[in-house]
TrEMBL record:
It comes from the Bacteria. This is Tat pathway signal sequence domain protein. Pfam families: PhoX.
């Protein structure tokens, strides 16, 4: 028994009840990411420096730039907004692909999402979504506003009925930053016809600093992560809709919002050993999902409380489980322990939560770096994870055998900022795949750039 596991058992005051280890490596990303990357050889080979200084990829892969911030929108609605973040890809008619892309803009940015009648929630807010339509060869046919007047649209997630749920990573009230409306909601965007969904907040999914969502395609339950910046840290939620799997607009019919409680584990950062599982996960009703007077994570959940975690970010459905990310934890900031990133899996059919991978510090170029963020299912199995830490930024693949490989790296190129100076490429975000699995779409946060990556995918 490891010291870490002994510590967990001692903290919980239990024996083995409620805590199980699994050695089925085909089901777990067992072992630390750093150890796997250091000792194993997997993926598509080493990254090849890009002569154009944009995106390093393995040999045989290539990229196309689909969009850059500041260029004119093809719809004529203004300039392409900045701060590219979460993104989803959807099948269209005649082999077309629709991309819906978030813009994580606050109230004071130079390149906000242009206000469009019928698609604007709060004219004072500069965030929202843009949508691209690609032809069957990957060429851009259209680029337009899909949602405007929202704030700090960070990540989100697709629905089983092929719409995009975009999340506001803020809880600013009306009157803050000049906003005319409350913020901190989820909005639904129809990638083929944004006007069908409109700028209507899905208030029953809660008002808090949302990061990402994932929907169980069997039950319609929506899972949500909260990226809170202060203590108590964020919660992991589930939303039980009144009209499960009801199609576009059905989430506006309301439902029940609940927060996760792992018995005797108030802070997920205390769990250190990959493969550690907790059975008997509980879900506690949220007292006031609209957070009319008190932010949800500060509300009274009873004497047993709920489970918190610092920097809950990416969230994705794969197989029969939902995966979610804790980007990092710092004891100096109030967490129970330090870590450089965790990926968790929750199996709702067993009520089991498992720590599947732990990231290591970015101190060795051969090892995965810190701060995993956006996450998606890879077409060949496993996950793709965007790094959001210091230094060079990567997209890493995680296989079902626990192996980690670098899939992409920013080339740390310097791009003109338009004033004779230069800006450095920022984090990756919005990793997603085309419906046929042949193209990986990827955003660079700043300067905003959307890439399409093709090659010998397995």
């Amino acid at each position: 028994m490891s010291a870490t596991r002994r510590h967990i058992l001692a903290r919980t005051g239990t024996a083995l009840a409620g805590i199980a280890f699994s050695g089925a490596l085909t089901e777990l990303f067992a072992g630390t990411a750093a150890a796997s990357a250091h000792t194993g050889s997997t993926g598509y080979g080493p990254l090849v420096p890009d002569p154009d200084g944009l995106l390093d990829l393995p040999r045989g892969f290539r990229y196309r730039v689909l969009s850059r911030e500041g260029a004119p929108l093809r719809s004529g609605e203004g300039a392409v907004p900045g701060r590219y973040d979460g993104m989803g890809a959807f099948a269209g008619r005649h082999g077309r692909v629709h991309l819906v892309r978030n813009h994580e803009n606050g109230a004071r940015v130079a390149l906000g999402v242009p206000a469009v009648p019928g698609l604007t929630y709060d004219p004072a807010a500069k965030g929202g979504c843009t949508a691209l339509t690609l032809d069957r060869t990957g060429g851009v046919l259209d680029e337009r506003v899909a949602l405007a007047g929202t704030a700090v649209n960070c990540a989100g997630g697709p629905t089983p009925w092929n719409t995009w749920l975009t999340c506001e990573e803020t809880e600013d009230r009306a009157g803050t930053n000049g906003y005319a409306e409350d913020h901190g909601f989820v909005f639904e965007v129809d990638p083929a016809d944004p006007r069908r969904s409109g700028a209507v907040p899905l208030t029953a999914l809660g008002r808090f600093p949302h990061e990402a969502v994932a929907v169980d395609p069997r039950t319609g339950v929506v899972y949500e992560t909260e990226d809170a910046f202060d203590r108590p840290f964020g919660l992991f939620y589930r939303f039980l809709p009144n009209r499960p799997l009801g199609g576009p607009g059905s989430l506006s019919a309301g439902g029940a919002l609940e927060a996760m409680r792992v018995p005797d584990v108030p802070d997920l950062s205390a769990v250190r050993e990959p493969g550690t599982s907790f059975d008997g996960v509980e879900w506690v009703p949220v007292p006031d999902g609209r957070a009319r007077h008190t932010p949800i994570r500060f509300q009274d959940f009873g004497p047993r409380g709920v489970t918190h975690a610092q920097k809950l970010e990416g969230c994705y459905w794969g197989g029969r489980s939902v995966y979610f990310v804790s980007s990092y934890a710092r004891a100096s900031q109030g967490s129970a322990a330090d870590h450089h990133g965790q990926v968790w899996r929750y199996d709702p059919y067993r009520g089991r939560l498992t720590l599947v991978v732990v990231f290591g510090p970015d101190t060795d170029p051969r090892l995965p770096g810190e701060a995993p963020d956006n996450i998606c299912l890879a077409p060949g199995g496993g996950l793709m994870v965007c790094e959001d830490g210091g230094g060079a930024q990567h997209v890493y693949g995680l296989t079902r055998r626990g192996e980690v490989y670098a899939m992409a790296r920013n080339a740390r190129a310097l791009a003109s900022d338009g004033s004779g100076g230069a800006t450095e490429w920022g984090e990756f975000a919005g990793v997603t795949f085309s419906p046929d699995g042949r193209t990986m779409y990827l955003n660079c946060y700043a300067p905003g750039t959307t890439f399409a990556v093709t090659g010998p995918w397995r």
